[in-house]
Design goal:
Low-confidence stretches: none
Order of helices and strands: EHEHEHHHEEEEHEEEEEEEHH
Largest sheet: 5 strands, mixed
CATH superfamily: Metallo-dependent phosphatases
Radius of gyration: 17 Å
CATH class: Alpha Beta
Number of domains: 1
């Protein structure tokens, strides 16, 4: 059992990813788990996927990764189509064959949204255009028969640790690369309120788990400028401030 760095929702932000990797190297983590949505967005999808493919991490396929890998280009949103246009066929195949769920060390399970649905939140419910923390009974209902001591999820970009009624811990590390967005599907906003790159470290201490959430400074002005250059003002504002325009 070691110290694990948990990353999610990089969204092509190679600058944020590199800053997170530099930070976690100082903390001597033994393994890295990437929970997906790695390249979708108007930033650096090619550079990001090259970086990820060169590292022997555990990688999960997120909903945007699935879209980029398998969806018809004509039906893609702006962020997914931007990423698809800039990666190779081999890289698209790599995304396509990533697992949607990984179980490791006997008591940890990792997935992007839910174990059986990468496009839904585990820990949040949408209410009046915002997200709220779900009750643990709601969370347990979404998990169905899935059981583990630690459940790792992403998708919402919101750092959380929730202790369920059976004692399990559900952990979302937050987003490495995008700290605010508007979801058009259910019409709601998610905002972190600062542009820091986010990730988490988990480590078992005797019979309990230590969870550390980490906010990392990086050159978010450069990332925002890139989004602006690609005429994505929504991303530009989110990257610069952690708020959605």
């Amino acid at each position: 059992m070691g110290k694990y760095a948990i990353l999610s929702d990089i969204h092509g932000n190679i600058l944020a990813l590199q800053a997170v990797v530099e930070d976690m190297q100082k903390r001597r983590v033994s393994r890295v788990v990437n929970l997906g949505d790695s390249i979708s967005g108007p930033l650096w999808p090619q550079e990001t996927i090259c970086y990820l493919m060169s590292h022997n991490w555990m990688h999960i396929r997120g909903n945007n990764d699935r879209n980029v890998a398998s969806q018809d280009p004509g039906s893609m949103g702006l962020s997914d189509s931007y990423a698809l246009a800039r990666i190779s066929d081999a890289q698209r195949t790599w995304l396509k064959h990533l697992p949607s769920v990984i179980m490791f060390d006997k008591d940890i399970i990792a997935f992007h949204g839910l174990p059986d649905d990468d496009s839904r939140y585990l820990l949040e419910s949408v209410f009046h255009g915002r997200t709220r923390l779900s009750r643990w009974r709601e969370i347990a209902g979404r998990l169905g028969n899935v059981r583990a001591e630690v459940l790792l999820c992403g998708h919402s970009h919101i750092p959380r640790c929730v202790r369920l009624g059976n004692g399990s811990l559900a952990v979302n590390p937050g987003s490495v690369g995008l700290q605010a967005y508007k979801d058009e599907g259910e019409s709601h906003f998610v905002e972190m309120g600062s542009p820091h790159a986010r990730y988490a470290i988990i480590e078992k201490n005797h019979d309990a788990w230590d969870i550390e959430f980490i906010d990392v400074v990086y050159d978010w002005e450069q990332a925002a400028a890139k989004a602006g250059m690609e005429e994505r003002r929504d991303w530009e504002e989110a990257l610069r401030s952690g708020y959605s325009s």
